[in-house]
Amino acid sequence: MKILKKIILLSILIITTNVLNAQSLAQLDIKNGFRNLKLGTPPSSISNKISVKTNFDNVKIYKYTGKDINSVYGIKVSEIKLHYYNNKLMTITINFGDAFDGPEFTISQYNSIITSLEGVYSNDNSNLIQNSNVLRGTKWVGQKVDLEVVMFNSSHYGFNTGYLNIYDKKLMRDYNNNQF
Fold it and tell me: Bridge-partner residues for 30, per DSSP?
């Protein structure tokens, strides 16, 4: 009887953990962006806070010029890029560390961001492939939205930088399908 109680208790614990992780990842889809930047919205929704940077393969890349986002979890932001496909915000890229103007992105800063994100979206994430340029990478996969944090070495400059990407999976899939 004691063994049966332990098995039932262990089963409930495992199920509860899985449900909590699923709910945490669901928050990624519910949030659907970063602060006031919402995936799927047109550039006109924040036209006073962006400047055109580049056009590339039917994607307009804007630089976010708003003064309201200076840091993420206390880590200084060097630049924010917004990628629009079919006039909808597809990807938000937040860059850390700047080889030309500012401090580099450190491992402790990367770890701090990961720990903070695990507190919000759970530790149900995966590590990205590391190579000579990618020092660390972590990804959270939602149903509609993915989030990844990557730290890499700009070997050309001998400087560590990183980024946080939040992207709309459907828009990304549509973009990739049109490229094939």
Answer: none
Give the pLDDT score at 14. 38
pTM over 0.85: no
C-alpha distances (whole Å) from 59 to each of 50, 68, 83, 176, 178 are: 15, 25, 6, 11, 12
H helix runs in the chain, sequence order: 2-31, 107-121, 169-179
CB-based contacts of 121, cutoff 8 Å, min separation 6 = 24, 25, 27, 28, 140, 147
d(CA 162, CA 83) in angstroms, rounded, equals 17
Which pairing describes strands 88-96 and 79-85: parallel, antiparallel, or unpaired? antiparallel
Can you state the percent helix, strand and coil of the chain, rounding each to 5? 35, 35, 30
The pLDDT of residue 155 is: 63
Q: State the number of CA atoms in the 13 A half-sphere of 134 facing the CB.
A: 12
Could you tell me the two tokens for 13? 């614990």
Selected residue with higher pLDDT from 19 and 82: 82
What residue has token string 């262990």?
A: 10
What's the token pair of residue 126?
Answer: 């995966």
Q: How far is CA 81 from CA 2, 63, 93, 163, in A?
A: 58, 5, 5, 10
